[in-house]
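Sequence design from tokenized structure. All designs in this work follow the same two-part layout: the structure record, then the generated sequence. An example of the structure record is given first.
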């Protein structure tokens, strides 16, 4: 899984479907030594279990891991593969302990750290979900000075650059942007930029016009709206405040994706309302209650928007479902 892979490649590995007696040998030979070029040592007496998902494109590879406790050792003999990438280890949950250059650091949920693949390293995976990515050292060397001096330094999960980075990664995987050839190059370049910002001691990002920051801030705002869209008081001002940016900057971010804040908010609310109206036993609820639940304080306004979006009124959609076999109102 080299970082210079020309096309998108995906690899799934699980020990679940294999007899217990061959799980460790399979994991060690087919995954550890052939794929990640490391040795693996189980650290528990309970039956060994591991699930891994890897993705690779030119300039980037990622790994998601969950299983029983184990230690990854990238020894000097493994360095012959010539991998000079910089790895970033995230503890999404649980714990892990990376060791390199005589330093041992314990990572807990939401912590992260950078390591060098060109030097011996040990990573003790303890529990929970661990996520890692690797980018070429050259890509980072073009963006930060003294890459080697930035490894084995815990990355504060509350730092603005790191929060934007993780929000952007979540969006990339949710939308499967790396699979799309037309998006892949820009997405990888953004990830390189955001890794550099996250591991470096960068100043506050502010309302930067840098494409990676714009993309990350946009995705962070979209995620926030998707979580809070049912709140009646959600507004450009409230979202901008929570994101640490101005309302005007937020509006520009939203416009960059082809829809305004209001259009995005209304679409989420209307789609949720449609779901509620077409659920079994939906006829037992008043339409005004559904409108309020999804965030509309004005029922007449909700009715107008709903008809414009779906070509029928909320009541008409409900009756159409009842006519096709849905639950009748009480």
């Amino acid at each position: 899984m080299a970082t210079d892979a020309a096309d998108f490649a995906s690899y799934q590995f699980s020990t679940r479907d294999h007899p217990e007696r061959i799980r460790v040998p399979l994991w060690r030979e087919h995954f550890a030594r052939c794929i990640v070029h490391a040795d693996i040592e189980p650290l528990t007496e309970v039956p060994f279990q591991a699930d891994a998902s890897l993705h690779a494109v030119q300039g980037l590879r990622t790994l998601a891991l969950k299983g029983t406790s184990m230690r990854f050792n990238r020894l000097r003999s493994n360095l012959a593969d010539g991998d000079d990438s910089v790895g970033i280890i995230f503890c999404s949950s649980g714990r892990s302990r990376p060791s390199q250059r005589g330093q041992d650091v314990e990572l807990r949920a939401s912590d992260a750290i950078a390591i060098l693949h060109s030097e011996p390293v040990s990573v003790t995976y303890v529990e929970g979900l661990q996520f890692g990515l690797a980018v070429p050292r050259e890509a980072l060397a073009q963006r930060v000075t003294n890459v080697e001096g930035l490894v084995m330094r815990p990355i504060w999960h509350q730092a603005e650059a790191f929060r934007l980075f993780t929000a952007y990664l979540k969006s990339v995987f949710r939308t499967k942007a790396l699979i799309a050839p037309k998006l892949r190059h820009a997405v990888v370049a953004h990830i390189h930029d955001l890794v550099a910002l996250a591991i470096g001691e960068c100043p506050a990002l502010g309302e930067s016009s840098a494409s990676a920051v714009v993309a990350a801030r946009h995705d962070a705002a979209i995620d926030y709206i998707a979580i809070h869209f049912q709140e009646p008081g959600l507004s450009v001002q409230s979202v901008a405040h929570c994101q640490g940016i101005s309302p005007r900057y937020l509006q520009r971010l939203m416009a960059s994706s082809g829809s305004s804040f209001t259009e995005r908010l209304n679409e989420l609310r209307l789609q949720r309302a449609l779901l509620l109206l077409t659920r079994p036993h939906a006829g037992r609820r008043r339409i005004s209650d559904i409108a309020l639940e999804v965030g509309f304080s004005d029922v007449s306004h909700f009715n107008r928007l709903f008809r414009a979006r779906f070509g029928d009124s909320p009541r008409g959609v409900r009756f159409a479902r009842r006519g096709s076999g849905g639950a009748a109102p009480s």
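The longest strand covers residues 4-14. We note this feature because it recurs in several other targets discussed in the main text.
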